[in-house]
Predict the 3D structure of the following.
Amino acid sequence: MKTETKHRPLLSGGLFDKPFMDSKATTQTVSTKEWVLGHLIGPLGLIFVVNTIAALVEKFFTQQTGAMYGVGNIAMIQQMGGIYEIVMTVAKILAMGTGLLNGWLIQHTESRQGKMRPWYLIFGFLSIIIGCLIFLFPGNSMGESYWYYFFFLLICYHTVGSSYFYLFRDTICSLTSRDPKEKAKIQFIRKMSWTLLSGIVIGMVFNMVLLPMWLEKDINGYPILMIIISILAIPLLLLEYFYTRERVTEDVAVEYEHLDETKIPLKAQLKALLSNKYYLILIIIATVSGIVDNYKGGNVQYFYIKFLLGGAENPLMYTIYQMVTGIPLGIGAFAIYPLAKKVGIKNLTVGGYALVLVGSIVGYLFPDQLVPALVGGFIRNIGWLPNAYIFATLLCYAYDSVEYRSHMRLEGMMGVAIITAIQWLIYAPFAGGFEAGILKLGFVDAQGITPGADVIRFMNASFYLFDAVLAAVIVIMLPFVDVEKHLPEINAELLERKKQAVLARGETWIEPAEQERLDAEEAERIHEENRIADLKAKCARKGLDFDTENAKYLEKQAKKAAKKKK
């Protein structure tokens, strides 16, 4: 008789099943501590690493090319442009395979820490290590063999290092809570961490200060800066891991206990995803956005300011442009969430991208004039606000809609991985397009070198026209994504399914509000036990009377409570 072999789930019974690896987020609803530590401060670790590499690696490449071949070797510079384009295309194609691997890993993972968080910690450390290695050995000390080292690590970073970071960033919101308000708030806070906090450091400090004043003059500064960033990133990565929680993963495990996720046919997964109009439209929009991002890279704005607005002669231009155009992203961050609650995420995003389109046209028509450039940049960044802070929430809602119709929760399944892999394949020909373009035009960024008219036109078009196309696509397609108005019925149905699953097993169903109250009471009880234990230990060390010290504490708390009632 043939016995069916049952494969052990990944990470089961290992490190991530140990209690000391448990999330510190213990409440059923998202607590203030989880908001702040897990979704605002913690993400800054990998955000700084990923954004620093995105902002600097292409500039580093052009400097390295200039250092090795000199500005007079036009033929070699053009050849390096072509090689860079090929390498980036290969990296994106390989990233497609990594996307499939990520989906497989998540689908076959079972641990008390969830499906995504353990791999985020593992791949997070890999990203940090590879990111540091990329910038080692600057200059001309290794000769031609250097390029084998650099391109190999660049490919590793895009395939093994950063790929899971983006998957986690785009998905964790949908796994943290089913509550639409909590999802929107999570997405907003994480985007604030990405856009506002890291933008100030990366955009204003790195790109506008360190790059023109230090790194451009001393290529050896790149590895020093990256090592500093990495040392700061490690404790923040741990903070993010310990103060996030996959509540929806836990719910799905309860609701669909009978369902073996690893045996859901791939055809059924793809049908559930691609037959959902909300998911399909958002994936098309995300794909167009990815094409634009991959083409532009991290240095388009830097080159635009340097050569079209006079930054090469007056470094103050970097600061002026960043400060004026960055005002909306700073001040607007605190207005976007209340606005979204009033008019809806979809409507706000459509209006925002209409402004992006207008601002891009204004800037493109007057590329070398400071005032129109500042006005156009200001308008564009007002328009970017919904995308920066809340747009990804719509994808979280789309996953709820998919689950509602298909009875399958699919974020970490192979169907999503395959769709993501196809996206990466589409991105591949555009990767590194800007940097490759200027090099193939015979221009390499080096001290005292001014680009010709054709390079200037290319920089202007790259900075504005791709964004204009993206904005037009979104303004046309996004009005069809009306998932927000269906969320009440979707969430009511999903909650009812969970309830029936619990009752079918003969267990007692507790309403979410009551469960929240019980969780709060239990958390308060544990807090009080810990406080008493800590106070007793303190009294024993210092020879104090416990009853006296405890009475002082209780009296102080009573006064605080009385003030709150007034």
About this structure: Confidence is low (pLDDT under 50) at residues 1-5.
